[in-house]
Specification:
Butyryl-Coa Dehydrogenase, subunit A, domain 1, Butyryl-CoA Dehydrogenase, subunit A, domain 2, single chain, 4-stranded mixed beta sheet, alpha+beta, 4-stranded antiparallel beta sheet, binds flavin-adenine dinucleotide, Butyryl-CoA Dehydrogenase, subunit A, domain 3, 10% strand, 12 helices, 8 strands
Amino acid sequence: MNVAPAHARRSVNEPLIDSLARVTNDLAKAAREDDQSESFPTKAISLLQQAGCTKAVLPKVWGGRCLGWRPTSRATLLDVLQAIGGVHLSVARLFEGHVNAFQLLWTFGTSAQRDALCAHVHGGGLLGVWNAPSPRGEMSLTGHPPAAFRLQGSKAYASGAGHIERPLVTAKHEQLGTVMVWPLDSYVTGPASEWSMQGMRASTTRSVTFNSAITSDQVFGAADDYHRQPIFSGGAWRFLAAQLGAGRALLDVMRLTLVQRGRADDAHQRARMAEGAAAIETARLWVEVASSASFDDALEAAEVIAKVDMARMVVERQLLDVLEIVQRSVGLSAFSRASELERIARDLATYLRQPAPDGLRDAIGRRAFDAPIHPTPGLHDDLKR
Ligand SMILES: Cc1cc2nc3c(=O)[nH]c(=O)nc-3n(C[C@H](O)[C@H](O)[C@H](O)COP(=O)(O)OP(=O)(O)OC[C@H]3O[C@@H](n4cnc5c(N)ncnc54)[C@H](O)[C@@H]3O)c2cc1C
């Protein structure tokens, strides 16, 4: 029986992947400890820094690799997110937020703002995007340029809360609309009990409350640039890549477990493995499609959104299937706190909960009614007669 990983293929020969591979064992060890302590993954983030991942977002003049905002970085980012997602999904979440924040602040920043951003990241700063609204009400920005502004209010579900010094925060301004703010002032973090979730315990996701003085150089872009398409919807491929990494890890651990138990030659186990392998391959192909679309300047925004939305729908379904396949194939021990499968499954199930999945499917269905995805010539005309 060949037990070499089924997903050993790499799309690029990339030094960043090699340096990440060198810290992967330590990252996996940290994942177990961070899950138990439910604390910010300080060691794991420093391993990413050591591997050069956090600074890779910087432009080349700052020693970076333009990761996440230059089309040439697509395959590398895809591999990096999958690799981190396969060992430490909470850290993959935090890293995804870092890449997302850099992309937005870089894209919509002035040249002076870009310099400040690069200096911060070059100095070791970790970024994040805190947009989820608080049930306590909207985050507001008051004041008028060029005078000082005031940022007031709360956000929910802020990953890295209390540890990310300078996150990107969205806020409503009466005249300017929704704006991106990159505050320098500190904020108040909600209690740990706010994240009593079964998984993603090391993501340190909490509420945050700001009451901060903001200068105009901390306000990025124009009204509603945060929601500018296709960047806004297109970026979803990044969390899909991280989730895919966790799904691949689950199937790999299942494979090794069944081989060790001498159950790999059982026809029922092979049937489930076939379904699991096909599910992972389907998800992988869709993440490829989504990531390629999101970097494809030749596509209209609507085309990118259509592709990435479909990828979200399909990948969620495939990974939910993988969760079931793995748990049924390995059985009760997959639920033991001593098993890697238990933690990875908890993290994946939690991270698969993303905004408005029904609305997403509804939009895909509407679009498919409005314009056939692949009309069949002849048949189409015939039906209209
Ligand atoms: C680990 C983790 C870390 C996160 N970190 C961050 C972060 O750093 N920054 C950040 O901004 N956010 C973060 N989030 C939050 C994330 O952006 C979403 O807000 C969150 O995942 C939404 O999940 P939900 O299940 O509550 O979504 P919902 O959209 O509430 O969906 C729940 C269900 O309700 C349905 N539904 C949705 N809207 C309606 C409606 N109007 N009427 C009827 N049904 C509806 C959906 O289809 C679905 O079935 C994080 C989330 C996770 C899991």
